[in-house]
Every structure is written in C-alpha cells, then in structure tokens.
Amino acid sequence: MADEKKLTSQSEDYSAWYNEVVLRAELADYAPVRGCMVVRPYGTTLWENVQQALDRRFKETGHVNALFPLLIPMSFLQREADHVEGFSPELAVVTHGGGKELEEPLVVRPTSETVIGYMYSKWIRSYRDLPLLINQWGNVVRWEMRTRLFLRTAEFYWQEGHTAHATYEEAQEETLRMLGVYADFAINDAAIPVIEGRKSESERFAGAVASYSIEAMMGNKWALQAGTSHMLGQNFAKAFDIQYLDENNELQYCWTTSWGLSTRMVGAIIMAHGDDQGLRLPPKLAPYQLVVVPIWRNEDQKRAVLEVTARIAAHLRSSYRIKVDDREEVTPGFKFNEWELRGVPLRLEIGPRDVENESVVMARRDIPGRAGKSVAPMAGLSAAVGDMLDTIQADMLDSATVFRDANIREPEDYEALKDTVDHGWARAYWCGNPECETRIKEDTRATNRNIPLDQEGAGPGLCIVCGEPAEEWSYWARAY
RNA sequence: CGGGGCGUGGCGCAGUCCGGUUAGCGCGCAUCGUUUGGGACGAUGAAGUCGGAGGUUCAAAUCCUCUCGCCCCGACCA
C-alpha cells in the first residue's frame, strides 16, 4: 500500500487487494493456528444472511437440519476406498483423549458422509423411511497446504446435505435439484451469475459417482467453484450398509447424495463484486443494507440533523437492516470511505441542507462517485429506499453477468485456447479423454471447470485438443 | 514438501551489512481545543522482555548456533 488510506488496486495485485479487503472490512482475521481464520462479526453476519437464504430454500424442498459429531472413527473413512484415498492427506487426527492414547484414532471430520452413512444404516429400514433428507450446518477441517481467508482455510464453515433415496432416478433428481437451489441462491441473492455443470472425472468428489458444481467468475477472471452437489450412487450405501426393504419385501441398497456450500461463498461475493474502493455487497445479503451519515457544522445543526436522522432511522429500521453512523470523532468523508470499503449498498447523507429541504442524499455503492448520488424527498423515503435496493441488487447481477459473458470465448483451435484462458474462460469441445484434460492443465494451468448442463447449441464437434469427435462442450479456466 | 520473504509499541516499517548514548518514524490509540457535505488539524500523552533459547563480547535488535511462527510463489484441494 503506497497510500495507507487506499487499498492496493485490483489491477496492481489482485491477491493483495483481496487480503486487504478482507482484513480492513473486518470480515475475518488470521487465527493463531496456521491456515485457520476468525470470522469477525461483520463477516459472520454476512455468512448468517447466506445461511438464512439457503436454509429457507432447503426447508422449502423438504429438508430438515440435524447435527452430527465432529469426531469420526478413523476406520469409517477407510470403508469407502476412493473416499479415504481422497481425504487421507488432509486429515487432522486425534490420537489422545483424557490423557491417554486412544485405541482407535479419531479424525476431525473433513466431511460427514461416513458418520451420516453409519447413522442412516441404523435409521433406514423400509422404503417408507425414504427419502431421508437431512442437512447439517457445521464446520470441517482439511489440512490444506496453501490457505487463503474464506477461499481455502484449514477449518471452514459450511452446510452439508445428505440424502438417501429408494431409486437412482430420485437421487439423481435430488442432486440436480440442490444444484439448482445453489444456482438460484447465487444468482438471486448473491447477484453472482453461475454456470451449473458436471465435474470431469478428475475433479469428481472422492467417493462420488458424479459431481456437479456451480462455477462463478471472479474479478480477475479466474473461476471459483461456489457450491457442489454429488450423486453418490450406492457407494456409501454399500460401504455402510444403508439398506431398505422395498414394497416386495426385498432388501435394496439406498442411493445417496450429498451437497455442500461453504464460507468460500463469502470469498465469491468479495471477488465477484469488489472494486478498488473495497467490497460491494448485494443488498439481499449485506449485513447493513444502508448506512445513514448525519452531517452538521454547529450545535444547532447537529441537534436538528440528529433529530431528523433518528426519526428517519426509526422509520426505516422496521423494513431494512440499517446502521446510523453518528460517531463524532471522524468526519463524514471518512465515514463515506469506510462504509464503501465495507460494501454497504446504499448510503443516506443527511445534513442541514437536507433538513431544510426535507430531502436526503442517496449514494449507491455500486455506482462510485457523483454519478451514484441522487436526492430523494423524505416523504415516501422507505419506498424509495426499497426501490433503490432492488435496483442495486438487479444492477449488480447485470454487471456481473455482462462482465462474465464478455470474458468467455470460444477458441477455434488449441493455440487459441491457450491464449483465451490467459484472459478469461474458454468454452470448448472436449472428447472426455483425461489425457486431453491433463494436457490443457499442463500447458495452460487452466482446468476443466465443468461440463455445463446447458448444452443448447452444442452439436457434435471436435475435441479442442485431439480433434476426435466430441459431444459436449465444457468450460476451461484458471481457478481458485 | 520445494523456492522466496519476514518476525522490532495495536498496525506498517527504519535501524541489522560495519555491535557502542535513553531503540526511532508513520498510522492508530488517549486527553483537550478547533473542525465536520468525500479519508481534518494542533498540542500533550500512553504504549516496545527487538519471535524464542543458547553462545561470543567490556557491550548484542545488530555477530554465531539452534528453534518456533507467519506471509507470498509452486505441486494438492471446496
């Protein structure tokens, strides 16, 4: 930071920008343990808003919440071959308890498929018990090599849904339903356009038959997997004996799914919307939807302004998440910058002129500077604020969508693809051969993000790498 | 685990090469006053076992040995 007041600009150093925003907006801080973070109150409120928006959708689709234990017997992980292999390098293991070495080590859950599978095998007896639709809000630990606040931390907070079904079709339907729920949330609440798709074999969750993701484009044009949904087939059902008696009194293995969305979504919100001034939070999720900054020059004005401010705030508080910043030790200009850094979508400025004219100045965070300012009459202010917040929400989605679409190209050939993924995402035909996928990764550091569910317009084509026939196109990009 | 960087008041750093007053600077913080429509200013003040341990020396933030931790860049991952 050359200028201590300003953030490092995104163009100068995107990851420095990211770290500074997270710290200075007081979303999170580094914990004493490497790779762990403290989610500060402002970040927690944002996460709680994410939770509420998702939880409502989970309930609407028939799910209920439960809480499963943090510690899992090591042997559980080993029951599903791919699952152990996938997770063993990143497990935190508890070897001692009560001052004694444990007979069997316990792992701190990296995810809960195994314990939940164990419990499901106890709970499920009959087809009448199905489908079983449970979600858990909690934390997990994965010993990551390289960590970044929110994006990849050793411990993170998330929800993991785990469902069991009688048939393949129902489980597959559930997998895609929840992917759709994530997409709906991302688009309509987080104002982040996302692409729903299937993960390639190499990117598939350890133990899954198929994994699906929503992929979002960040401000530096890298991709971020913002949510995943897995079709687990009967892999875990067989490993944990999750069986039921069907209508014909025959024993069948269940079909299970799991799906998760983590505090990484906070990182997505930061990077999808942030600018050189700091955060830009979508109104639906922002801890404060609007901040009111009173302005005065002398005692008389102060009294009048604060009185009007209090009245307006009391009125707005019933409908909006509002913060009145009446600190006297900092100037209005300082407050403007601080709340812009912290991403509050809308600011109301109330000064002597406004008191006189019975108006307020509204400043939109998504449109910096003078262009984002307008004057609104105090009469009918609540409705005007509501309209403005709706407009900001919609405009943020629009501009994120325009940005994303402007940075997705369809390269003609392999040489063009190499260039494309340097500046954005590529949508290209791929034959599905892992060797072609690996080659792209080695040549460009870009990975297969997903094979979009929406294949409209895709006909038979030729693989961008090997030229063999390809049925589907997929997205390729540098990713977090 | 490989490469790089860094540990000095709350934060950011200088000082370390070449040992030598009372360890400085900016920001922040506290008090008072003047300010307040885009990051105010002045005065006064509080705050540091120089990451830790051992060693060399009359003398160590500074030199030597060991150690711990953090950050950044790679390979792995949501």
Global shape: globular
Q: What is the mean predicted local confidence, pLDDT?
A: 94
Percent in strands: 25-35%
CATH topology of the largest domain: BirA Bifunctional Protein, domain 2
Q: Per CATH, which architecture of the largest domain?
A: 2-Layer Sandwich
| Overall structural domain count | 3
Q: Return the CATH class of the largest domain.
A: Alpha Beta
Strand order, biggest sheet?
A: 3-7-8-14-11-10-9-22-25-21-20
Low-confidence blocks of residues? none
Tell how many strands the DSSP assignment holds: 25
CATH superfamily of the largest domain: Bira Bifunctional Protein, Domain 2
| Helix percentage | 25-40%
The structural class is alpha+beta
Radius of gyration using CA atoms only: 25 Å
Kindly report how far apart the N and C termini lie.
24 Å
User: How would you sum up the major sheet?
Assistant: 11 strands, mixed
Please work out how many helical segments DSSP would assign: 14
Explain the overall architecture:
The longest helix has 26 residues, at 381-406. The chain folds into three domains: 14-273, Bira Bifunctional Protein, Domain 2 (BirA Bifunctional Protein, domain 2), CATH 3.30.930; 290-395, Rossmann fold, CATH 3.40.50.800; 408-477, C-terminal domain of ProRS (Translation Initiation Factor IF3, 2-Layer Sandwich), CATH 3.30.110.30. The chain has helices at 14-24, 41-60, 74-77, 81-87, 113-123, 168-188, 235-240, 264-273, 299-317, 332-341, 352-357, 381-406, 414-423, 434-444, and strands at 28-30, 37-39, 64-65, 71-73, 92-97, 100-108, 132-141, 155-165, 194-198, 210-217, 223-233, 243-245, 251-253, 255-262, 290-294, 322-324, 346-350, 359-364, 373-377, 408-409, 425-430, 447-452, 461-462, 469-470, 472-477. The protein starts with 13 loop residues before the first helix and ends with a strand. Helix 2 (41-60) crosses helix 6. The chain contains 14 helices and 25 strands. It has an eleven-stranded mixed beta sheet, with helices on both faces. Strands 16-15-17-18-19 form a five-stranded mixed beta sheet, sandwiched between helices. Strands 4-6-5 form a three-stranded antiparallel beta sheet. With 480 residues, it is an alpha+beta fold. It binds one RNA strand of 78 nucleotides through helix 1, strand 11, strand 14, helix 10 and helix 11.
